[in-house]
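## retry 2 of 3
previous attempt timed out at serialization; input unchanged, resubmitting
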Amino acid sequence: MIATIFHRGKEFKIDFFKPIDISIPLSTAENCASAWYVGPMKLEPVVMGDWVGDVNQGGSVNFRNIKFNPHGNGTHTECAGHISKEFYTINQSFNRFMYVAEVITILPFEQDNGDFVITRKQIEAALEGVQPEALVIRTLSNGLNKLTTNYSNSNPPYILKEAIEFLNAIGVIHLLIDLPSIDKENDGGALAAHHAFWNYPEDVQLHKTITEFVYVANEINDGTYILNLQIAPFENDASPSKPVLYKVY
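## retry succeeded, writing output
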């Protein structure tokens, strides 16, 4: 199914039958990707008297409760409500779901303190003047272990505030990354990159989102794509999400 899209004076041709899913699924597996000291997702059949919501246990249907943390289990998209006193929800933050996106690859820079960070200079060089609506950052190294890593207590790479301010300046409204957070794991609660991206509390940007825990496979080339950013309609600061890319022809 070939579609021709016109946006901001440019023409993009994509094949809707060739989606590129960059999400990490939520799973009950012990080795599923996770962070923030939470365990794997749990599935438990509903039990009501003699009835159990599990076909293999004699139930007529599978009818399960699900327990998970959207920030710690799998790919998720979050809004300004993640850091605000006000109750902003991800379901209220979207007014459309298709965007022109740029995929870039960055090897985080090691600082003198041993932290690995993504800098403005790196992002600026990788974009080469492109000013996308959505930016997808793939970090190196990029092994399949990203699908099974527990990042808790590992001090993973993060984005410096100066880099976020650059993204704001060029008009990025949706930021996607293959790390559990754009901020340092333990920063005393500062969350400088989150605050800068949403400009909270000075002039909060409710239409902007951050998607963390994506996985961009090595065979996906850097460059321009059409992004379909899908969420579940949670009235919460974050939701599990399924970002899907479409190659531009």
